[in-house]
Automatic annotation (TrEMBL):
Taxonomic classification: Archaea, Methanobacteriati, Methanobacteriota, Stenosarchaea group, Halobacteria
Name the UniProt record assigns to this protein: Iron-sulfur cluster assembly protein
Species this protein is from: Natrinema halophilum
InterPro entries according to UniProt: FSCA_dom_sf (IPR034904), MIP18-like (IPR002744)
UniProt domain MIP18 family-like: residue ranges: 11-82
Entries under Pfam families matching the protein: FeS_assembly_P
Length: 268
């Protein structure tokens, strides 16, 4: 058996992968949320240190972020192993051991009720609905009505021009636009690309949109939308967006308070 060696990844490459990991409750990058404390690279072995806003953040949410961070870093061809070091969390011992020893959530938390996959699926659906709200708002701002929006299919988008939102951020250009065909290509409108790209990314992840003829926008339950119920579905999307934004504000406040306490302790 030959030992595989590697010069290792760059720190920028690791951060780019971690930027793809989201806090599942907020649907925001853990890099943008400043959860990453440090990245250690030793050849092909990477250790990621992270701290969440509170010590009592849901173990299921913390588990998902730790697993996703490990898997994203290990997807780099120059990485042999990725280890996660979660700090200042009430269940850091169970999570660090479970994630780094490749255990299941049930094995790491034998007393837990329910399966983490069910939690992830529910949060993914909420994120999809919130992203859909932003995408639909973009189309409404372009002057399209409910009849046109509920009839959109995947084939109506110029997919090659759509990349995830983080790509727009890294390129420093959030003004990219994309052409969207309307009413069987009778005409087209040009709209900001980022909201549509973010929605399409999550719609694909939740396996609601895959084929060119698939209806693009859905109810929270995953069904096509009737024009008559468009307003109701759109309001439910706004509710999901407001809920995430409010929770994000709470987390930001908790993190700032925690950092303030730590600075106060260090200055004592």
């Amino acid at each position: 058996m030959s030992a595989r060696t590697s010069d290792g990844p760059t720190r920028a490459a690791v951060r780019d992968r971690l930027d793809r990991v989201t806090d599942p409750e907020l649907d925001r990058s853990i890099v943008a949320l400043e959860y990453i404390d440090a990245i250690e690279i030793d050849g092909g072995h990477v250790t990621v240190h992270l701290t969440l806003p509170t010590a009592w953040c849901s173990p299921a949410f913390a588990w998902m972020m730790a697993v996703d961070a490990r898997d994203e870093v290990e997807s780099l061809p120059t990485v042999e192993t990725a280890r996660i070091a979660l700090h200042d969390h009430m269940h850091e011992t169970e999570i660090n051991r479970g994630v780094n020893e490749r255990l299941t959530f049930a094995a790491a938390f034998p007393d837990a009720d329910g399966d983490v996959d069910a939690v992830r699926s529910e949060l993914d659906d909420t994120a999809r609905v919130a992203r859909q709200y932003d995408a639909v708002e973009t189309l409404l701002d372009a002057g399209l009505d409910a009849d046109a929006i509920v009839d959109f299919r995947l084939r109506d988008l110029e997919e090659d021009e759509l990349v995830p939102d983080r790509q727009f951020e890294s390129d420093g250009d959030a003004s990219e636009t994309v052409a969207v065909s309307v009413r069987d290509r009778a005409f087209a409108v040009v709209v900001p690309a980022a909201p549509l790209a973010r929605y399409l990314e999550k719609a694909r992840e939740t396996e609601l949109v895959a084929n060119p003829a698939d209806v693009l926008f859905r109810t929270p339950e995953g069904d096509p939308i009737d024009a008559e119920t468009f307003d109701l579905v759109h309001r439910r999307g706004r509710l999901a967006t407001v809920s995430m934004s409010s929770q994000g504000g709470i987390c930001d406040g908790l993190r700032e308070a925690r950092e303030g306490r730590l600075e106060g302790t260090a200055n004592d």
